[in-house]
Design a protein that fits this description.
With 342 residues, this protein is an alpha/beta fold. The protein has a single domain, classed as Indigoidine synthase fold (3-Layer(aba) Sandwich), CATH 3.40.1790. The chain has 14 helices and eleven strands. Strands 1, 2, 3, 4, 5, 6, 7, 8, 9, 10 and 11 form an eleven-stranded mixed sheet that branches. A hairpin with a 2-residue loop joins strand 3 and strand 4. The termini are far apart. The relative contact order is 0.16. The structure holds pseudouridine-5'-monophosphate and manganese (II) ion. The site of pseudouridine-5'-monophosphate has 18 residues, from helix 2 and helix 8.
Length: 342
Amino acid sequence: MTAIVLQQEVEAGIRRHSPIVVLESAVLTTGLPDRPWAADWDRDALAHAVPDWDPDAPLATQLQHRMEQVVREHGAIPCTTALVDGRLHLGLDERSAKTLMTHGAGRKVASTTLAIGMGSSISAGTTVSAALTACRLLRKHADEPHWTPVLATGGIGGVHRGWSERPDISADLLSLGTTRACVVSAGSKSILDMTATLELLESISVPVLGWRTDRWPSFTSSTPPSNPSINLIEDLQHLGRICAHHWQDLDQASAVLLANPLDDELALDHEAMEHLVEQAEQLATDRGLVAADRTPFVLSTIADETNGRSVAANLALLLGNAKRAAEAACMLVGPHLVGEDG
Ligand code: PSU
Ligand code: MN
């Protein structure tokens, strides 16, 4: 039994230096429930945010299919990463995806816990840090040093609110500081301390770019002008130039982070969301929830409080990020790799 399962399509893609979009799966096992749209959630909001979504199909399973489909439609190969029965899958077939959804429900592994999960043969979703470990493995398989995968997520992990009393800093950050990959996210999870997260990204040499925005977006809620400022980029070519300078000219080892905001008209009201997050965080503290148990609790409390509108926005931004990541992946393999050959 090999510890790493490299899907054939992904392996062939790397060999051809094709564009590959790596997908994390913690969002499937801990970020969203794998059950149909709840009866008391807002169906119109869902139909508006993701027009052809089937409300009767399980959310997480459908999301996995849809993310992969969007990546393909935009010209790249999807590579969903997950820990299945103790093996790290780089690319997920139908059967392994089913095992992940059943045995891995409620579980996630980060770069820190991947080996432990492998050692006890569990199934679990991969966080961004674990998916970045996967990116590093993929790059090892490529005979072209400039080939770089793009990772799509909803929101990265970061510095949690209340960090000065209860230090909780995601392994996503350190992995971003040490892995060559372009990562597309709609900001950081709404339950984080945004300013502290951006300060840390600066400390660890991760350039933070904004897709047609100069503000760090607030995930599912609207972006107020008071959000931290980031570096606006106008188009994919601009992104490509920055990536080439960062990795090829400057030989930097960190990721490039592209913030891709959710459409304004789908974003939830910022003030209202802030209030809900604070309430849910307080409730989690009152119940004595710590570490990994907090996020799923806070997310599901907010989902119920917004009648599912936070979930609809989350789905829309995840699919939007998968699309942007595929476009970025196609652009990254284009000019310089072709230029090198010719
Ligand atoms: N964003 C979401 N839902 C999630 C996550 C992000 O809307 O479940 C996951 C991502 O996989 C991210 C992880 O990498 O949470 C961070 O977890 P932690 O803070 O435990 O490192
Ligand atoms: Mn944590």
